[in-house]
Amino acid sequence: MTKQEVSIFWFRRDLRLDDNVALYHALQSENPVIPLFIFDTDILESLPKNDARVGFIHESLQKINTQLNTIGSSLLIKKGKTSTVWESLLQEFAISAVYFNKDYEPYAIKRDLAIDALAKANHTLCFSFKDQVIFEENEITKADGLPYTIYTPYKNKWLEKYKSIASLVEYDTQSYFSNFHKNHFDFPSLQQIGFEESDIKVQPYNLTQIANYHETRDFPAIDSTSYLSPHLRFGTVSIRKLVNWAVCKNDVFLSELIWREFFMQILFNFPRVVSHNFKSAYDGIQWRNNEEDFKRWCTGTTGYPMVDAGMRQLNQTGYMHNRVRMVVASFLCKHLLINWQWGEAYFAEKLLDYDLSANIGNWQWAAGTGCDAAPYFRVFNPDIQLKKFDTKGIYIRKWIPEF
Questions:
Q1: What sequence ranges are listed for the domain Photolyase/cryptochrome alpha/beta (predicted)?
Q2: Class of the 1-131 domain?
C-alpha cells in the first residue's frame, strides 16, 4: 500500500503556531503537514533532571498540542539523536519536504547541514526560513560587506533598513490550519522524556509597563521588566510582533531587541568567541581563578550586597535583573579576577533565558575582552551601584533576609 505523502514542519526555537514563517510556508505546500519536535539527547544529556527550561519547553509543546487537537491534529514528539530520529522518520513516512526556521548557533548549523544532506540522500526537499530575527547574519553589514563589530553603527544601519521596509509582515498561519495532517500521536509526559517538574518556573511575559521601560529598567526593586527573555529564547512569542510593537512604544526597549540581533550576528560571523576572547590581545590575562572565591560568588555569599542578592535571585528563580547582571559579572572578572568563561558557564546552567550569543556577548562585554566591550579598566563599583539603583535596599532585603 502506497504511503500518503506528507510535509514535516520541525519545531525548534519557535514554539508557537501563530506568525511562524516556516510553518506558514509548510502549510501552503500541497501535502498535509505533520508538526514535529525532537528532544535532542545530545543537548539533554548534560542537563539536570529537573531543568526548568526543559519543563517550559514541554509545557509550551503541550499548549501547541492542545490547539492542534481542536482541529483533529496533534504534535509528533520524538527523543534521541537528531540524525537517528530523522533516519527513522524518513523510513516511517513518505516525506516530500521538511520545513524549519534557521538557527544561527554553531551546533545548530552543523546539525541542520547534516539533516539537509540526509534528506537529499532520501530524495526529500529541505526548506529553511528566517524567523527568530528581523535581520539575519549578513543582512546588516558595513559598506565593504564585512560585519559590524561595534553596536552603535550596527544599530543605526539596522534602523535605517527597518524604516525602508515600512512595516514587518506577520504571517497568518491560522488561515491554513486545515492543511495540518489529521492524526493522533501520543503526547509523552515530562517523566517519559526522562525529566521531572522543577520548582522554578518561567513567568508569563507582560508588556504593560514597557512604555516606561527607559525610566524604570535600571531599578531592580521595581518589578517593571517584561519577563520576555525566555519567551524570545524559545520562540513562544514572535519577534516581528514585538518589534512592530516596540517601534511604537519605546525606543530603549527596541534597542535591547537590536542588541540581541547584534550578538547573534557576532556569533555567526565569529564562532570562535564561544571559547576564545573576541579581542585576542587579552588572551594573556593572568586570571587568579580562585575556586573558593568562585564558590562564594555562585552561592551569593561574597559579602557584597548587590552581588549576593543577584546571585541568590538567579539560584532561586532562574532570573536576574539586567542591571544586576552587569554588576555581578564585573565583580567576578574585575574584583575576583576570575575568567569570564567560568561565569558564562554558570549562567548557562542557571538562566531560564540562556541564549549562547547573548550570554557570551554580555560576559565578554563585562570582562572587556569582547567586541564593543566596556574598557578593561571600567569597573562596576558594587557599593555605588547599590546606592544609585537600590537606594532604600528593597531589592537587597528581598534576597538577603539576614541583611
A1: 5-134
A2: alpha beta
